[in-house]
Design a protein that fits this description.
Blueprint (H helix, E strand, L loop, with lengths): L4 E6 L3 H9 L6 E4 L8 H4 L4 E2 L8 H11 L6 H19 L15 E2 L9 E2 L6 H12 L4 E4 L3 E7 L5 E7 L5 E11 L20 H9 L3 E2 L4 E10 L2 E5 L3 H4 L3 E3 L19 H13 L5 E3 L6 H4 L1 H9 L8 E11 L2 E3 L11 E3 L4 E2 L12 H18 L25 H11 L6 H12 L14 H22 L22 E7 L4 E7 L7
Parallel strand pairs: 1-2, 1-9, 2-6, 9-17, 16-18
Antiparallel strand pairs: 3-5, 4-5, 7-8, 8-9, 10-16, 10-19, 11-12, 11-15, 13-14, 14-15, 19-20
Helix pairs in contact: 1-5, 1-11, 3-4, 4-11, 6-14, 12-13, 13-14
């Protein structure tokens, strides 16, 4: 029999580490990460984790806020299950050590963020929540967990029964290795690096989503990209994330003259849903205005936000002036690999959790601080199933894809992919731009490349980015309305008959095939 792992996890964010930490000691677990174990979006997360644990809060309020932010495109079961589990998940971690910030009485400090109706955001280290939680989870890993860094997985291995049995991967020195596993978990994150301006780690290029798509898995809701309203913006470049918690503490978005830009735009003003705030900032920037976060009313800013202070000072910005220049950038993918609440995909033996997956929790736009929560929930939930699984015999011989000799495709420059996506498929979209981008992307036929192994890791990354770009563009063309993170200037309003439709894309012999599926949401009954 081929030597294999019980569990093979691709990625090292909170969802991946939560899963690994909960798996039984008698399971052989391997984590592969394309960079280092701490190089992930989760580690960079400044914001916190949302949980209804305040005196006047209730999970039903959190549920209502999640549906409102998601523009009722959410999956009702996912929202209710995950949100109701939040207090328990936070309590469990909080009892293990000093992960989250507390007051002098030992009670968790709760912050406010955009589109929340109550203070319910738990933070760690002020604005270093992701780092605190990741370090905690790494410390809990058992001896049965092996971590391999600098391993770039690029192809899912399937047997003749169309079951996933592992991955094919390449190291920086060019060596290729097959990793076999009874269960393969894609926890590879979203695809934020597709856009010029982004808060995402350099490694977040949609690899897992592209691999799943190429293997035939269903991918859903790729048109819904959340653009975070406030990235530090200096000399035409974004330099890092300015957490929504800054606005939660009283910062206001203003022009050079100090005019508040969110007055009269939304009842929550600067704490409105992210797509509303991002679009308004984008409008001002396109007209040639600068937009700033006025932080002058926040007391002890440097102590409250040490990570943000460091980002600003490293880039020469003097916080004493009380203004931080900002611009919106890609932040989170609401869509991804279609899964259930155990992370099961449409391919047997293949699971996905975290941002790479789409459970339907976030709908058309993620409510702030629900992402780390989803990662914690899905990691624990999937572990409960894998811990109880009785494995049948598996056919370990993978299908060899028919080799069709191909010359190496001439790939575009990375900046060209990012710039065209930002301009044509970014915050504001329309049919003409989307069609132009589709024509441009189709010239590379990235999804038809069948000899990936002859490409370098950097080239394979570009191929995966082109595949994700095509998935997003295709889905954005299909959705002829505006909803959440998907805004089309030629269809600027929500269509109520449309909210129950999900755009599902899978690969066939000719290329991409998409369809709309009727789903049950909170408003379906």
């Amino acid at each position: 029999m081929t030597k294999s792992d019980d569990i093979l996890i691709l990625g090292s964010g909170i969802a991946a580490l939560q899963l690994a930490s909960f798996l039984n000691k008698d399971l052989n677990v391997r984590i592969l990460t394309k960079d280092k174990i701490r190089t992930a979006n989760s580690y960079l997360a400044q914001g916190g984790i949302a949980a209804a644990i305040g005196e006047y809060d209730h999970p039903n309020k959190h549920i209502a806020d999640t549906f409102e932010a998601g523009r009722y495109h959410n999956n009702q079961e996912a929202v209710e299950e995950i949100i109701k589990s939040a207090p328990r998940l936070i309590k469990f971690i909080s009892e293990q050590g000093s992960v989250f910030d507390k007051n002098q009485d030992g009670e968790l400090l709760l912050g406010m963020e955009g589109a929340h109706s109550e203070k319910r955001i738990v933070h760690g280290g002020g604005d270093a929540t992701g780092k605190n939680v990741v370090e905690f989870l790494i410390s809990t890993l058992k001896e049965n967990v092996t971590i391999e860094e600098d391993v770039f997985a690029y192809e899912l291995l399937l047997n003749s029964e169309k079951r996933c049995i592992g991955v094919k991967a390449k190291r920086p020195d060019g060596t290729i290795k097959n990793y076999y596993s009874r269960n393969t978990i894609l926890a590879t994150g979203g695809c934020g690096q597709l856009f010029t301006y982004t808060s995402n780690a350099d490694t977040v290029s949609g690899d897992g989503i592209a691999m799943a798509y190429l293997a035939g898995a269903e991918v859903v809701d790729m048109e819904f990209i959340q653009f975070h309203p406030t990235l530090l913006y200096l000399n035409g470049e974004t330099k890092g994330l300015i957490s929504e918690a800054v606005r939660g503490e009283g910062a206001v978005l203003v022009t050079d003259e100090g005019t508040p830009i969110m007055e009269g735009v939304h009842p929550l003003k600067d704490l409105g849903p992210r797509h509303v705030v991002s679009q308004k900032i984008y409008e001002y920037l396109k007209k040639g205005y600068n937009v700033y976060l006025d932080i002058s009313k926040i007391e002890n800013f440097k102590q409250r936000f040490p990570s943000i202070t460091a980002i600003c000072e490293e880039n020469g910005l003097q916080l004493s002036e009380g203004k931080i220049p900002v611009a919106p950038g890609s932040h989170f993918l609401m869509g991804g690999i279609k899964t259930d609440l155990y992370g099961r995909t449409s391919i047997k033996g293949l699971f996905s959790i975290g941002e790479a997956a789409c459970t339907g929790l976030h709908g058309a736009n993620r409510l702030a601080s629900n992402s780390l929560l989803e990662g914690l929930y899905m990691g624990e939930k999937l572990s409960s199933m894998l811990n109880e699984t009785v494995y049948e015999d598996i056919l370990w011989t993978e299908i060899t894809r028919p080799f069709i000799p191909q010359e190496k495709v001439t790939l575009p420059e990375l900046e060209e992919i990012k710039d065209t996506m930002m301009e044509r498929v970014g915050i504001v979209r329309n049919k003409a731009n989307l069609q132009n981008q589709k024509v441009w992307l189709d010239t590379f036929k990235a999804h038809q490349i069948n000899n990936l192994h002859i490409y370098s890791i950097d080239e394979m990354t570009k191929i995966f980015m082109l595949i994700n770009a095509n998935l997003i563009t295709e889905a954005a063309l299909k959705r002829t309305e505006s909803r959440g993170g998907h805004f089309r200037s030629d269809y600027p309003v929500e269509e109520d008959h449309y909210w129950l439709n999900k755009t599902i894309i899978h690969k066939n012999s000719q290329g991409m095939e998409s369809n709309h599926e009727y789903i049950k949401t909170a408003l379906a009954t």
